[in-house]
Design goal:
The chain is α/β, with parallel strands linked by helices. It is built from 21 helices and 18 strands.
């Protein structure tokens, strides 16, 4: 074997002993793109002959010199034990060494040029360190070359290899699936990620630390953290003025009890199913817990805690002494038969009944739980407990509910709107009103708006919204109720009134209106819808559902000076009637419609006055469009804080 070949082999051995990794520090800096030979078994026994890249100005050579190739050529016989190189071999050897030196000298410039080109061309990729080695990752699916089976060497390799792998990956099925999932996640109304607090910069150090502590405990409970964020922002003046309330708030934000349990049930075909049940008893500082049960596929522990926290503050605003709770299941009653709903409700109550009682917890209706479900739940509770207790809220007066229970919340929302508008020297008569949802509450809001001579123009369902530019009247209202009673789409309305419009996959907030009534679900109004509300000319928003606006939407409405009435205050009518039902003689009382409405109006007016007074006591003026929001939170918190102070650290 020739001397020149020995030197080349020694050079190859030295290369194999080194572990070359790609080091990326930024655009324009050097990147080592050599292949890690230990990861490629095909190179274990072959030396590598390195030659310059096409950019280098060197003497033209054969085509094979543009790559790293294994050296396995036969060598001439040795003379006197020493290999005798031939003249062509000697020239090739010297040329190779010169090329190696030249390549090493020019390497930084070559890589720098490619790095800038790559950064400009492949904007969807990025460089990150993985197992102490820098890799080129896909921005969408966060995987590097080998993960997509595009690079057989297990690393990023040379320039051509990297660019080829990235190009092929961009067209790969894995990358396209990642793009599809990413696009689908952006289209969802509820983002799985927790929204960044809008008001975190305005919070004091103490208030911000409380919010940060809750976020660290339950980082994935987006709805619960969002509800706490709003309250902490409102009561910040209280915490600054009275530092003793800081520890009370920290205790209040931790629920007293949370129950999570499985609910097995059998469908009509004899097949077994299992759902998850929840009940959160958030606070009993003011009295026994009271709160709704929700049957909906989106139900989880975060939603249960958020609803229980909101209910705790709602009940604390009233004149009656009650704590707050909420719960339900991810069971969907839609499409289920009567017997299937009954079997599920009975199985649900088999576990929940031991935590209920007139002095412990009093369940009420919510989304997906109506008179039918409450009847089945109460029947199983009575069977298991062995006695008849009127502590379930529902419309059946013979087993504990008010005959006006379903109307109370919806009527109270309209009465609250009248009070808010009266403070603005306006009246509800003749104003265009946009309503979302078409459930119990939305229908009673629509009914009471008609009696107040307002002009409701929209309702909605899960597929879109119905717009009648002329406004609904009692005939149209009756038609909508019949359509919903038959569980049909609101599109059926167009068969009778073809001038109306049904807009698919949309919400009604872009339509011209003066007052908005969001009655559908939490976070139904995001940043885009908030901008649409402002553009539509709406000046008052009455929260009918719990937390209907995202944090970003709240910020936009605040800056646009849209007056917001929070659900804690607007639900005063329903809360008042629900609490009056606790009277042992209430189920035997028969109220006239006038008495019923007078009770609701009194409860709404008293709640409004207490909230506005609390806001003014802490320097929030009446002209502030969020004065009612802050005042309601402050008033409710002070009532609970006083009870918790009296009862000690329990």
């Amino acid at each position: 074997m020739s001397t020149s070949m020995d030197e080349i082999n020694l050079l190859g051995q030295a290369q194999r002993q080194q572990q070359h990794h790609m080091a990326v520090r930024g655009i324009g800096e050097e990147i080592d793109l050599e292949i890690d030979q230990c990861e490629d078994p095909s190179f274990s026994d072959a030396a590598l002959v390195a030659v310059p890249s096409p950019q280098d100005p060197v003497v033209p050579a054969d085509d094979h010199k543009g790559f790293l190739i294994p050296c396995s050529q036969s060598q001439p016989a040795a003379v006197d034990g020493q290999p005798q190189p031939t003249p062509p071999q000697r020239e090739e050897h010297e040329g190779t060494l010169r090329l190696l030196a030249h390549t090493k000298k020019k390497k930084k410039k070559v890589v720098k040029k490619w790095r800038e080109e790559w950064a400009d061309t492949y904007k969807w990729a990025y460089v990150a360190v993985h197992d102490n080695t820098s890799r080129i990752f896909c921005t969408v699916c966060k995987e590097f070359g080998r993960k997509h089976r595009r690079n057989p060497y297990g690393n990023e390799g040379s320039r051509n290899m990297q660019m080829s792998a990235l190009e092929e990956h961009n067209n790969s099925l894995l990358h396209k699936e990642a793009l599809r999932l990413q696009s689908a996640s952006k289209e969802k109304v509820q983002s799985p990620e927790i929204e960044r607090p809008v008001y975190v910069k305005a919070l004091s150090k103490t208030a911000a630390s409380i919010l940060e502590s809750v976020s660290k405990k339950d980082p994935h409970e987006a709805e619960f953290i969002q509800s706490i964020q709003e309250v902490v922002h409102s009561i910040e003046p209280v915490l600054v003025k009275n530092s003793q309330y800081v520890q009370i708030l920290e205790r209040l934000l931790e629920p007293e009890r949370c129950f999570v349990f499985r609910v097995p049930w059998i469908d009509d075909r004899g097949e077994a199913h299992v759902n998850r049940g929840f009940r959160v008893q958030f606070s009993q500082a003011l009295g026994p817990c009271r709160g709704g049960l929700r049957f909906h596929p989106s139900m989880n522990l975060s939603v249960a805690k958020f609803l229980a926290f909101e209910q705790t503050l709602k009940n604390a605003l009233s004149l009656y002494k009650l704590g707050g709770a909420a719960g339900g299941s991810d069971f969907d009653p839609k499409g289920k038969s009567e017997s299937e709903v009954m079997r599920f409700c009975q199985s649900f109550m088999d576990e929940l009944y031991r935590y209920l009682g007139p002095d412990q917890d009093l369940p009420a209706e919510d989304v997906g739980v109506g008179p039918r479900e409450m009847g089945y739940l109460f029947g199983q509770y009575r069977r298991l407990s062995g006695h008849f207790q009127g502590n379930f809220t529902g419309p059946k007066i013979f087993w504990s509910g008010s005959s006006f229970r379903t109307e109370a919340t919806g009527y109270g929302l309209v009465f609250c709107a009248r009070v808010v508008l009266a403070d603005m020297n306006k009246e509800l008569k003749g104003l265009r009103c946009a309503i979302s949802g078409s459930g119990k509450i939305a229908m009673h809001v629509l009914e009471k708006l008609l009696s107040c001579e307002a002009i409701p123009v929209t309702v909605s369902d899960s597929k879109g919204y119905l717009l009648d530019g002329d406004g609904f009247d009692y005939v149209k209202y009756s038609l909508i109720r019949n359509i919903k009673a038959q569980q049909k789409s609101l599109k059926e309305y167009l068969k009778t009134f073809p001038r109306a419009k049904y807009i698919d996959d949309a919400k009604p907030w872009g339509e011209q209106c003066d007052v908005a009534f969001p009655c559908a679900s939490q976070n139904e109004i995001d940043q885009g819808e908030a901008l649409a509300i402002v553009t539509s000319g709406c000046r008052v928003l009455i929260e009918c559902s719990n937390m209907p606006c995202t944090a970003q939407a709240v910020d936009i409405l605040r800056k646009a000076k849209v007056h917001v009435a929070p659900a804690k205050a607007t639900a005063a009518g329903g809360v008042a009637v629900g609490e009056l039902e606790l009277n042992s003689e209430f189920s035997l009382m028969q109220w006239s419609v006038e008495d019923f409405e007078n009770k609701i109006q009194d409860a709404v007016k008293q709640t409004y006055d207490r909230s506005m007074k609390a806001a003014q006591d802490y320097g929030i003026m009446k002209e502030n469009p969020e004065s009612l929001v802050h005042g309601a939170n402050i008033s409710a918190f002070l009532n609970i804080a006083q009870a918790m102070t009296d009862q000690g650290c329990v």
